Amino acid sequence: MKRLLGVWQGTGIATFPTIETTHYREILTFQPHEADAILHVEQKTWRLHADQSESLLYWESGFIRQLSASTCEWINAQNNGRTEVLKGDMIADGDTLCFNLKSVTFSNDSRMLQSTRSIEINGDTLSYTLAMAIQAEPTLQQHLTAQLRRISEL
Question: Has this prediction a pTM greater than 0.85?
Answer without folding.
Answer: yes
